[in-house]
Amino acid sequence: MRRIISERQEELPPSMLGKLLSVSHAPGMVSLGPGEPDFTPQPHILAAAKRALTEKQTRYTSPQGTPELRDAVVRKLLKENKIRTTADNVLITNGATEGILLTLMATIDPGEGVLLPDPSFLAYKPAVEVLSGTPLMVRLRETDGFQLTWEDLERAILPEKTNVLILNTPGNPTGVVFSKKVLEEIADFAVEYDLLIVADEVYEKFVYANQKHISIGSLNGMQNRVVTINSFSKTYGMPGFRVGYLTGPEKFINSMTKLHIFSSICAGSVSQAAALAALRGPQKAIPRIVRDYDKRRKEMVRRVNTMPGLRCREPGGAFYVFVNCSKIAKHSYPFAQNLLTKAKVAVVPGIEFGRGGEGFIRLSYATAPQLIRKGLDRMEDFLMRRRT
Ligand SMILES: Cc1ncc(COP(=O)(O)O)c(C=O)c1O
Predict the structure, then answer these.
(1) Domain 7-41+285-387 has what CATH class?
(2) Which atom of ligand 1 is the closest one to the Cα of 244?
(3) Domain 43-280 belongs to what topology?
């Protein structure tokens, strides 16, 4: 048979994460791998979804999203993110993942460069590659606290060929929260090189200690240069609803809406009803969950730093601890595989997030405290046995 699978698809790297996750739910396994929260949506969110079904809200919505939800997003962005926008400049998407893909589809042509933090969320690079763009990896260094620096951006950029810089704060997998100073420097860099910034802020609520999330789209003069992407998946514990949103300059939103019509027409009607209830309803569960996650974060950091050969910084955000294992394992994949088969703990090898993640493993604390403890106990036992 002649070749039917596209070369573009064949060139995508196989996901090691997929392989690991497929065995991580086997009986007896403890998974410290999840990239989704372990809490379920608040009852009023589920009730809104049920109501939407009872009322047979089963038709396509407006491709940009229901007017009510877009209005609620506009109010939220102004109140919480200090981003001024209008309902015409908001697009409701099938999660942030679709938002990222649509933004790249609307902005890059084959061969054009996209600056990506390295390590970063594992969908960015394949999204650039599937569009025949050129990923330009910008190292995030542990020694800089995983903050982006002008020098590293300058080292990575191909000035004549680069349109877009993807930014993720709070960050997956490092847990970094970019400081105002760093964001201002990145904003200056974007102006200097005439770049569009794609700000993925899905972990915005998960910030700890004295950290503060700042939206780069709220900085002076950035309104025409930033597409802000967000999601209901993490904040409201509803990743399976597949609903998110983005806002940005009108010309980009128009072009993304056109692409969105061809890719999925609209986000799910029931999911949009649930998302509306999430934004309109009480928000008091969020700080409670964040306090709870903060306790888990502290315990995980403390425990990891007592284990032989491992060390980690205290992450300021998201729900991951990015653990340096380079002293005992230069390559994170075989190390993660060993933890899986010999200690029965699933973690994500840092290499999944880019070459800059090699020598690290990602542990998630978005799982029940007793499972976190069990997983950490098993890791500790495994490392102690290795030593003797
Ligand atoms: C940084 C980042 N962006 C986006 C997503 C995906 O979000 P969504 O469920 O809204 O597609 C994830 C999921 O892990 C993520 O870590």
Answers:
(1) alpha beta
(2) 10
(3) Aspartate Aminotransferase; domain 2 (3.40.640)
